[in-house]
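Bug #77: duplicate submission created two jobs. Keeping one. Sequence:
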Amino acid sequence: MSRRARPSLIFAVLGIAAAAYAVSQTMLIPSLPTLEESLHTRPSGVSALMTVFWIAGAVTAGLFGRLGDMFGKRRMIIVTLLLFGLGGALCAVASTLAVMIAGRALMGCGVGLFPLAYSLIRDEFEAHRAVRSIAFLGGIAAIGGAVGQSTGGIVAEHLGVSSIFWLSVVMSVGAIAGIALAVPESPVRTGGRVDVGGALLLTAGLGAPLVAIAEAPTWGWGDSRTLVLFAAGAVVLAAFVLFELRREEPLIDMETLVLPRIRMTNLTTWFVGFGFFGFSTILTQFFQEPKSTGYGIGASATEAGLFLVPGLVLITITSFFAGRLSARVGPALTLRLGVAVSTLGMGGLALSHADPAEVILWTAILYVGVGGAFGAMPTIILQAVPPSQSGQSAAINIIVRMAGSAIGVQLAATIVTASIGASGAPTDRGYTTAFVLATIAGLAALGASLAIPRETPAREAARVQAQPG
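Kept job's structure:
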């Protein structure tokens, strides 16, 4: 097959691979109470299934991005999918919490396929098509999260929790076969060595605070164990930065990260992950709160999923057109528009969520913006770095988003749980507080996005070509 043959087929295969991972991010959330009972554990135990997923993804995304730059992006995509599929199969047959946690950790490694796919598209596609394809592939991360959240309860209720994992296995196997047959290997390589020391420091530096976030609802945010883990993570990450600055072949190029366009895009990404992705995970729980609370809808798991369908349809449409918009007006403007629309939707939820129609409307608006924002972020990053740094730079952007999402998920759950009254159900104030905090994060994301330096595609291309590859 020629190097630029059948780009639509290449993108379709990569899209299936991305969807397999993206759906698995949130599909398990509606089933956590069921797993708590079947695995005979407590809430912090099942929350570890989400936390280990985030940790594994955060600490391996950079590693796989770097390995892809060194040894081939197609090859590393297949490796990430193998780990993802193996983890799904392990979770499907698991009868103990420990085995399922191990499986979820392997599934989390699948996040590496996103930076690898972004940079492979950049290497293989013509420039105008690459912008649209990367934006839509980034949107698949948002689409998958919405699909998982809206269908997870339905699938588990009718087919069982294990079917969620078997679905991931089937999708990963199909994606591996498609990539092996249809996707060529990228010719862009950097060579060099694997920075094992940097990978270990990054693992410890990210892992410690994420564990603290996961256990904070049980320990307490002011508990000494929580504070020690946060402090330890900060110290180790500082050591990681110093270590990388002295390496000739670092896992992450720190000089690239401090470029204004990269720095401000990553800051925007953190707030987007924290406010929109993280806090949106409480929506299905909100729909299922009983009517006796005075604000709840009393929906079943299936009905709660159906309430999210309008937003799911809109996020799919938005993600498709976000690529075209990015190619026409630039990804930075697309990101700002997406963040502004999502902030409007989250603000609407904070102000008024008494009527089901209102909640569906505000949620749909939220999803519209997320589709545009998720598609624009990786495009900005990849336009600002040379091809030899595509994998690691895109990986860092994903790590930042996952870290923000992990904190948002746990903090939203903590706020809602802390409001539980004598009735045993959260109060309306708990949900309102969570929505307000997410709206503030959206405003912070909008401010950060406005600070991204303006640069025309022509100037970006000239500067990237001038950088050593």
